[in-house]
Amino acid sequence: MKPDHMPKLGPKYWTALVLASVFGANTGDYLSDVMGLGHIAGLPVLAVLLGIIFLVERFDRFKHHAYFWSAIIVIRSAATNIGDIGRDLHIHALLFMAFLAALLLVSLFVWQAFYGKQRQTEPGNNSLATVPVYWWTMLVAGALGTVIGDYFSWGLKLGNLNAALVLGAALAVLFLLGRKGGLSNLFYYWLTVVCIRSAGTAAGDFFAHAVFGLPVSTLVSGLVFVALLVLWRERNGVRGTECESA
After folding, report:
1. Distance CA 1, CA 131 (A)
2. Between 20 and 30 A from 203 (CA), which of 28, 42, 73, 144?
């Protein structure tokens, strides 16, 4: 994805990623449950949609972040269904988490091996990487976060609300500890993303099942997500193109 289409790391980015996690959890469930595609049949549809986003993005010369956030939602939706496949196959949650965590670590070490020598080129440059492995890693992190969120809700029997609060508190700690630059570190960044996906899964399920119902929750979370992207105007700053390597 072109640098002009990538948002910089900062408060708006992280807030949008949190809302995207809730919205994506709802859209994934909406495709599988309301539209009746199930957890597997909807994946090819989402793959085609993601391919269209990347294809169109290549020919757009205007500077905006619509493609990035559209791709994030599609990948988050797919990750929700991939995370739920383990339950369909009766794979123990802890075993599935271990597999996805190992897959995530392999992705990060591949990233390190091929892009570890790339550094930020400007002072204050701490934006996202434009490397292809980013999107695969986002899918794996999203699936892992889905399984963790469900495990806290049901495996530990906390329920969706309590799981969202516990995982949200853990996320707040990560933000607090990483506020001075840690969030741009490759491994810390992805740990934070996994925590965001975990909390977003529990929160999305809470709103879908205990507050609004899934269709309304999907609509409301989507509107809030889009409103944030449109209404939050960031101050001009240095735009970057890659995450710092560890």
Report:
1. 8
2. 42
